[in-house]
Amino acid sequence: DLLPACNGEITTMSFLQDVVDILLQYVVKSFDRSTKVIDFHYPNELLQEYNWELADQPQTLEEILLNCRTTLKYAIKTGHPRYFNQLSTGLDMVGLAADWLTSAANTNMFTYEIAPVFVLLEYVTLRKMREMVGWPGGCGDGIFSPG
User: Fold this and answer.
1) pLDDT, tens digit, 9 for 90 and up, residues 76-132
2) Are 77 and 27 in contact (CB under 8 A)?
3) Care to name a GO molecular-function term for this sequence (predicted)?
4) CB–CB of 70/50 below 8 Å?
5) Are residues 99 and 116 in the same domain?
6) For residue 47, how many other CB atoms are within 10 A of its CB?
7) 77 exposed, middle or buried (CB, 10 Å; 0-12, 13-18, 19+)?
8) Structural domains in the chain (count)
9) What is the tens place of the pLDDT at every residue in 6-39?
10) Cβ distance 88 to 78 under 8 Å?
11) What gap in Å lies between CA 80 and CA 84, rounded to an integer?
12) Which of 24, 2, 22, 13 shows the shortest CA–CA distance to 71?
């Protein structure tokens, strides 16, 4: 029913709006000091309470939305004011927006032809980073890489 299905625009917009609503509620709740950092359950408890098995048939959009809510219900709220960790820190709103943007664009950075703006942003960001560490005029080379 979703795009690229014929006449899938309304269903797609409604589904994505529901997902965005779930995500925004999670973000707001993450910063609420009256909530828990995590609603912790042992793995066997979560396995018994929910069906995590991969189905042979596609799930309905309502089931997918329920899975989104369940996933976030048991996720650690890294944006919570009382969340501290040595490897990950809070939730950055601009970074979150950037993640949504790059996920929606769904492109690779192999070449300028496939990702012109992202390739340019990588170029100017790396040049600025080289300037910050003292390389004259930002001369040098580099690439972003995950991990």
Assistant:
1) 999 999 999 888 878 899 999 999 999 999 988 888 999 999 999 999 999 999 999
2) no
3) pyridoxal phosphate binding
4) yes
5) no
6) 12
7) buried
8) 2
9) 999 999 999 999 999 999 999 999 999 999 999 9
10) yes
11) 9
12) 22
